[in-house]
Design brief:
Structural class: mainly beta
Strand content: over 45%
Length: 124
């Protein structure tokens, strides 16, 4: 079992930045994929970025160049640095944990464990 807890969500103005964190606990494998997704009201859960334990990263086109996923090692949190935030980035942001892939999937069903989410609101 893996427990995930996100933090760092806030309300910021357009153009601002935030860094989200996701702490893992429980029985975590040394080989994994981890991901960030988001879900806005009335919309489907949207993939943002993924990373494996070999630090291979992949981004959804919608956030490429603005968002950066990182994880220093197996024991440090998963981060999502978000720059140039826009009102359409308003959503609940979730981290997820799943089995290792050489190229991690952007499909939600590939991930076994999810956090409760953290709210990000972009508004002037």
């Amino acid at each position: 079992q893996v427990q995930l807890e996100e933090s760092g969500g806030d309300s910021v103005q357009p153009g601002g930045s935030l860094r989200l964190s996701c702490i893992s606990s429980g029985t975590t494998s040394r080989n994994y994929c981890m991901a960030w997704f988001r879900q806005a009201p009335g919309k489907e859960r949207e993939p943002l970025a993924v990373i494996n334990n070999k630090y291979d990263k992949r981004y959804a086109d919608s956030v490429k160049g603005r968002f950066t996923i990182s994880k220093d090692n197996n024991k440090t949190p998963l981060y999502l640095k978000m720059n140039d935030l826009k009102p359409e980035d308003t959503a609940v942001y979730f981290c997820a944990h799943g089995p290792y892939d050489r190229i991690c999937s952007l499909v939600a069903s590939r991930y076994n464990y999810w956090g409760q989410g953290t709210q990000v609101t972009i508004s002037s």
